[in-house]
Task: inverse folding
């Protein structure tokens, strides 16, 4: 495809309240494959090469989710799709002389090919508008594309099809998306009247007015009906998630990624996985994860915005906003919290938590240990039950551990403190002072043995248990 998106802009309609969705926030923030629907539309337009994008919203939570990446305008009164586009008039005025793509924030599957091919058609015939349509086996409920001599003559809504069998039998439906000459769009939007039962301004009326005024309007029929799919209720949202999951898994299968089953697997469309990696049941790869080759991820692992090197096994873990190197083993039941960097060859065992820390190459943290706000060297060993005491009630403090250090079981490292290279802490030690290179730190009182005390203390308990055996 050689179509250039230079001289284009996009308006995404995302102001619908979506009461039937029963969402706690906004309908367009409901997630498909762990990604808000509105971000599917916005990122899709941006990845196609459209730099100027305006999202029409009504909920400030949507603006927060967009994180300042796109222009935003508010539709404070929801008076229809035509009114929603008109709310972006200030944005559109800046883009006169261009072509405007209209997308919907609750229809996530308008793909690059559809955008590209429809724009090519739009420009090749000098159209004022190009409607994107699709063929549906069961078109009931959708506006039909009515053609004369092969050209679009009207978009006829379902309510107007009920007493016209020949129109009701049409299977080509309006997706709602399409291209407009920006100046023509602005001119026509001002002419739309709310002459309908809902008293709303419909964008489809802009198409009708353009045709009536003798403007060229064309229609691009998408190769897949998925471009028409949106979500108005939880059942619709589930269907979108199922389609997205199958599409994403199919893409990774084609790239050499291994799956044993699909059960419980959720992969964000922004995630990248190298060939030869196994994704096991119950794995969720959210946000933008980058997974190297030859890895085993799962079962029952959740990762969000993480990078993983080659030949690493992450089993039954939670990992967020962090980096794990090559040839690591992590889990089961390990949590890696944001801001952590696990170097090559590390071993993090069961019930280990790492938070905002750098763990050096070849270091082993086998089990039942918390390391927070720390910089740990290479080839260290942490015994069972080690805790970095990084919070003093007012602020977080950092701990430094040098290379080849051996941190004994049940050691408390009270931040801020440093442990030198090849230093050693005895089991049960609480470290409150810096330990020099090669030194031993131990805070273990002399063991006192009182003969007979245990027997006296436990006599009644032992008798009770023995009586239960009789």
Result:
């Amino acid at each position: 495809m050689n179509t250039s998106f230079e001289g284009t802009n996009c308006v995404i309609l995302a102001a619908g309240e979506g009461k039937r969705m029963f969402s706690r926030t906004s309908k367009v923030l409901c997630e498909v494959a762990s990604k808000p629907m509105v971000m599917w539309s916005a990122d899709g337009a941006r990845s196609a090469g459209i730099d100027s994008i305006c999202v029409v919203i009504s909920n400030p939570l949507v603006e927060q989710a967009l994180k300042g990446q796109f222009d935003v305008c508010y539709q404070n009164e929801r008076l229809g799709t035509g009114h929603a586009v008109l709310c972006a008039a200030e944005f559109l005025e800046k883009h006169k002389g261009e072509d405007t793509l209209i997308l919907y924030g609750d229809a996530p599957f308008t793909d690059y090919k559809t955008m590209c091919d429809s724009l090519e058609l739009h420009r090749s015939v000098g159209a004022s508008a190009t409607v994107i349509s699709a063929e549906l086996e069961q078109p009931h409920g959708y506006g039909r594309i009515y053609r004369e001599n092969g050209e679009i003559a009207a978009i006829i809504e379902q309510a107007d099809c009920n007493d016209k069998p020949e129109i009701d039998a049409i299977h080509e439906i309006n997706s709602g998306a399409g291209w407009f000459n920006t100046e023509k769009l602005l001119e026509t939007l001002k002419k739309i009247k709310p002459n309908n039962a809902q008293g709303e301004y419909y964008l489809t009326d802009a198409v009708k007015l353009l045709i009536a005024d003798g403007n060229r309007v064309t229609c691009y029929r998408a190769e897949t009906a998925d471009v028409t799919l949106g979500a108005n209720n939880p059942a619709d949202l589930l269907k979108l998630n199922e389609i997205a999951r199958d599409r994403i898994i199919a893409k990774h299968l084609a790239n050499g990624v291994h799956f044993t089953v699909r059960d419980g697997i959720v992969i964000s469309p922004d995630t990248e996985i190298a060939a030869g990696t196994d994704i096991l049941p119950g794995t969720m790869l959210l946000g933008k994860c980058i997974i190297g080759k030859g890895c085993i991820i799962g079962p029952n692992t959740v990762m969000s915005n993480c990078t993983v090197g080659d030949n690493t096994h992450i089993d039954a873990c939670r990992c967020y906003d962090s980096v794990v190197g090559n040839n690591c083993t992590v889990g089961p039941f390990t949590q890696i919290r944001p801001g952590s960097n696990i170097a090559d060859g590390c071993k993090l065992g069961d019930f280990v938590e790492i938070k905002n820390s750098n763990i050096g190459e070849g270091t082993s943290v086998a089990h039942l240990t918390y390391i927070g706000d720390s910089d740990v060297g290479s080839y260290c060993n942490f015994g069972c039950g080690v805790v970095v005491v990084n919070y003093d009630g007012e602020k977080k403090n950092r701990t430094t551990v040098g290379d080849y250090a051996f941190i004994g079981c049940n050691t408390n490292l009270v931040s801020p403190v440093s442990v030198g290279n090849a230093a050693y802490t005895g089991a049960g030690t609480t470290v409150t002072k810096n330990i020099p290179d090669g030194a031993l730190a131990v805070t273990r009182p002399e063991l006192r043995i009182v003969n007979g005390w245990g027997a006296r203390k436990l006599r009644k308990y032992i008798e009770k248990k023995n009586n239960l055996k009789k």
